[in-house]
């Protein structure tokens, strides 16, 4: 029974990848439209691949150097191994491949969605969402396959082969080596998210400021030299970056729960590893329920509600997961369990899972409210656009700050409730429950950039107005789903980071984080500062790259005659090159801060000060992520509202009006908020926690205590020889001398 369940986990990952391949083949068979559409799509695909190749080249050197250091560090402590380097490399490769899967299908689905929109909104939704589901299933399938397969290997090598206790040091070693997989995944995710975010927003801001504001041409006009780079950015940032991001989140959540599960002595039918296996089983079955939920995403005709269809698919997959978790928990876990002295039952674990699903759902609903068209927050920004650019900015900042209140209360309630149910394991399993439907969440998220690209191709190809109208409906919903996806990601990051934090405390051998100590309080403040400097670097990078983009677009408008009359083609590749070089150059410093700061603090000041820093970065990062993502999403949809016309104080305003120009400024400010620094926060806090977890055995108080004991206490051994009945008998006497 035990062996069968272990092998079921990677098998479920393979099922997800198989369904992904079927859906990918279906998308590839759809019509691509006329030659002009295919040419434009080809430019986008070529630019996206050029960026990924340039990014992978830099990351290759990082992975090699980090792998060597990890292999060396694995020889220094008993609970690690040089094999952690191999685990790290596999995690990095899988993370990069997850991003590639999403980007590859997105660059195929965009033009096919445009062509489908020439027939009906229903078909356009089907193509774009199927493209998104390929990415969702690819990410979830790779995560479950990789994590499940590696656990089987490490469990066999370190635990079963030696007949060791499943709650002992050998299992701790197996999970510590497995943590390398998560570290590799999150490291690549951070660089992919930051680099992709800088790329997409540099192009977007440049295209908007010169094209829409100065030249007065539409957003995706073929005459704008930056428009191809803008569409490339949607793929490398919102698709490849998000894919690597949620891959890392998914893996980190499962790993944190497994590490805490090792501390539970479980009298079960699975050799005592049921609490460790449970999060992987939930993740694997979540793929199946996501596939079932995807079948509900459809509309009847052009009057169908796209948002409602997506919500139906999302909520159905959540309900399926909740129902199944009852039977899984009852089957796998014994009646009573305990962790660190906290007693709970298997039903308490089930309640914690349900709570995690509820928290994830509420976070999506709240984020949708603050970013969706027609809701009070976006309408307030629209109204303030009537009095100029400054009041639009004030309105957006206010909405972003207000939008943190309800999510934080929901998160706080979720953390408290999950702990009341099942202690620290309850918090971790709640996060695992929330992340179980990642395939569905990511499908909904990836659908947005595909629809955005489809609208851009429709505009550049000068297709009939009704085609752009259909893609605009999808794009508007996509803006909201992107915001809700980021809200979901930051919520899962908060719960996951707390679980990783708890795992770090256990392995580091500290009982509590005492903020009355000056050094711990100092670490808390330093941690709270890191999201701010990280955001500053990311936003400043977008600003510098956008300046280069603006100058290039102005140069082409000025020096290439005939662009505005459609007689000459812009030099799209120049703008693609600017975004690529800037993003690769600028992503290194923010990434280095996330990776190096825990190492410096941990080794210089010890695990308790590092714990204080992790607490600070988690709280500050969650708030910054919510504020920036929601403010940016609200600004974006406020701008889009003018495309159909908005009423302000009894008067109607449309595109190119003064309030619309103010909304464009707000959207431009919000772009790096929602697509660069904001969504990077959840990777930042998880990556720092995982780095801390990996170095925990090296800075452990337990190891330090052992060294101190060896210095303070010495043994005096006396050997005596006694003759009894003509035979010599040796006796050893040990005396402990202080």
UniProtKB/TrEMBL annotation:
Record flagged with keyword Transmembrane helix: yes
Needs which cofactor? Mg(2+)
Q: Which reaction does it catalyse?
A: Na(+)(in) + diphosphate + H2O = Na(+)(out) + 2 phosphate + H(+)
- UniProtKB keywords: Cell membrane, Ion transport, Magnesium, Membrane, Potassium, Sodium, Sodium transport, Translocase, Transmembrane, Transmembrane helix, Transport
Site annotation Determinant of potassium dependence: residues: 482
Q: Does the keyword Metal-binding apply?
A: no
Supply the EC number(s). 7.2.3.1
Compartmental location: Cell membrane; Endomembrane system
Q: Where are the membrane-spanning stretches?
A: 6-27, 58-77, 83-106, 127-155, 276-297, 309-329, 349-372, 488-510, 522-546, 587-606, 612-635
Q: How does it sit in the membrane?
A: Multi-pass membrane protein
Q: Which family does it belong to?
A: Belongs to the H(+)-translocating pyrophosphatase (TC 3.A.10) family. K(+)-stimulated subfamily.
Matches recorded under HAMAP family: PPase_energized_pump (MF_01129)
What protein is this chain from? Putative K(+)-stimulated pyrophosphate-energized sodium pump
Q: Species name for this entry?
A: Algoriphagus confluentis
């Amino acid at each position: 029974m035990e062996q069968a369940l272990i092998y079921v986990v990677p098998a479920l990952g393979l099922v997800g990848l198989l369904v992904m391949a079927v859906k990918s083949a279906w998308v590839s068979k759809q019509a691509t439209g006329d030659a002009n559409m295919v040419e434009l799509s080809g430019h986008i695909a070529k630019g996206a691949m050029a960026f990924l190749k340039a990014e992978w080249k830099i990351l290759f050197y990082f992975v090699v150097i980090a792998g060597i250091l990890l292999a060396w560090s694995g020889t220094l402590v008993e609970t690690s191994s040089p094999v952690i380097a191999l685990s790290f490399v596999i995690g990095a490769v899988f993370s990069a491949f997850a991003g590639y899967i999403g980007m590859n299908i997105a660059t195929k689905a965009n033009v096919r969605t445009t062509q489908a929109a020439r027939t009906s909104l229903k078909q356009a939704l089907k193509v774009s969402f199927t493209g998104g589901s390929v990415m969702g299933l690819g990410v979830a399938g790779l995560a479950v396959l990789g994590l499940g397969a590696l656990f089987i290997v490490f469990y066999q090598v370190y635990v079963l082969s030696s007949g060791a206790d499943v709650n002992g040091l050998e299992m701790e070693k197996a999970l510590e080596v497995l943590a390398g997989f998560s570290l590799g995944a999150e490291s690549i995710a951070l660089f992919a998210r930051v680099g992709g975010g800088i790329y997409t927003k540099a192009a977007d801001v440049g295209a908007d400021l010169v094209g829409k504001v100065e030249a007065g041409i539409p957003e995706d006009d073929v005459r704008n030299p930056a428009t191809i780079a803008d569409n490339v950015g949607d793929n490398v940032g919102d698709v490849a970056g998000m894919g690597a991001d949620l891959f890392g989140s998914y893996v980190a959540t499962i790993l944190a729960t497994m590490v805490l599960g090792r501390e539970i002595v479980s009298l079960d039918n699975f050799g005592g590893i049921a609490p460790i296996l449970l999060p992987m089983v939930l993740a694997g079955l979540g793929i199946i329920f996501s596939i079932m939920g995807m079948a509900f995403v459809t509309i009847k005709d052009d009057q169908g509600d796209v948002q409602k269809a997506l919500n139906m698919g999302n909520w159905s997959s959540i309900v399926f997961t909740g129902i199944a978790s009852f039977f899984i928990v009852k089957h796998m876990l014994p009646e009573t369990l305990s962790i660190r002295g906290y007693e709970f039952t298997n039903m308490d674990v089930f309640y914690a899972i349900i709570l995690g699903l509820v928290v994830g759902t509420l976070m999506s609903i709240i984020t949708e409210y603050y970013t969706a068209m027609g809701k009070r927050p976006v309408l307030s920004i629209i109204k303030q656009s009537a009095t100029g650019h400054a009041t639009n900015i004030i309105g957006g900042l206010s909405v972003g700050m207000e939008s943190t209140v309800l999510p934080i209360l929901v998160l706080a309630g979720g953390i408290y409730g999950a702990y009341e149910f099942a202690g620290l394991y309850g918090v971790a399993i709640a996060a695992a429950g929330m992340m179980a439907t990642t395939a569905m969440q990511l499908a909904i998220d990836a659908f947005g950039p595909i629809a955005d690209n489809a609208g851009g191709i429709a505009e550049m190809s000068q297709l009939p107005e009704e085609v752009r109208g259909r893609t605009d409906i999808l794009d508007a919903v996509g803006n909201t789903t992107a915001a809700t996806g980021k809200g979901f990601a930051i919520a899962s990051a908060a719960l996951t980071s707390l679980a990783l934090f708890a795992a770090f405390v256990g392995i580091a051998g500290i009982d509590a984080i005492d903020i009355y100590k000056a050094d711990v309080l100092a670490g808390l403040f330093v941690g709270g500062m890191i999201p701010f400097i990280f955001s500053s670097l990311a936003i400043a990078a977008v600003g510098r790259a956008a300046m280069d983009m603006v100058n290039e677009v102005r140069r082409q408008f000025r020096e290439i005659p005939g662009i505005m009359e459609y007689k000459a083609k812009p030099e799209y590749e120049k703008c693609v090159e600017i975004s690529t070089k800037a993003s690769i150059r600028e992503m290194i410093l923010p990434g280095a801060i996330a990776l190096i700061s825990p190492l410096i603090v941990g080794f210089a000041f010890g695990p308790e000060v590092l714990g204080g820093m992790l607490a600070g970065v988690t709280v500050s990062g969650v708030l910054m992520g919510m504020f920036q993502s929601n403010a940016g999403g609200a600004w974006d949809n406020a701008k889009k509202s003018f495309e159909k016309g908005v009423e302000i104080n009894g008067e109607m305003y449309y595109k190119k009006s003064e309030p619309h120009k103010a909304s464009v400024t707000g959207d431009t400010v919000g772009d790096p908020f929602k697509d660069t620094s904001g969504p990077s926060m959840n990777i930042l806090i998880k990556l720092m926690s995982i780095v801390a977890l990996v170095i925990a055995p090296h800075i452990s108080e337990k190891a330090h205590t052992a060294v101190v004991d060896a210095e303070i206490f010495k043994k005096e051994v006396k050997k005596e020889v006694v003759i009894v009945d003509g035979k010599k008998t040796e006796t050893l006497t040990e005396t402990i001398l202080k």
